Write a sequence for this structure.
């Protein structure tokens, strides 16, 4: 298990927690928690695959060059491919940008 931290400049305010994905073989979970007091996106990454920090850096750099929410991102990885990482990050961004938020069944 490897834990990595990344920080990016962020402008957009996140107004609610966001959760996408699951921790399962070949997948990952992303939780975004509002952090409006800081002008950053702080990523706490836990991965089951050691030694791929440079790959994570490249994927996250590419994603966050298009903007970020002021949030604490928790990414829990279970061997996801870079494509799956990009998909989940995109889903989280889309959900965070949806206003009003999608209805949740009781």
């Amino acid at each position: 298990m490897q834990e990595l931290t990344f920080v990016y400049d962020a402008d957009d305010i996140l107004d609610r927690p966001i959760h996408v994905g699951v921790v399962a073989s070949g997948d990952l979970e992303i939780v975004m928690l509002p952090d409006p007091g800081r002008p950053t996106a702080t990523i706490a990454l836990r991965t089951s695959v050691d030694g791929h920090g440079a790959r994570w850096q490249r994927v996250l750099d590419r994603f966050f060059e298009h903007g970020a929410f002021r949030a604490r991102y928790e990414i829990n990885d279970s061997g996801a491919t870079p494509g799956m990482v990009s998909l989940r990050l995109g889903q989280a961004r889309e959900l965070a940008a949806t206003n009003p938020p999608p209805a949740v069944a009781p």
Helices lie at 53-64, 82-97. The first strand starts at residue 2 and ends at 9.
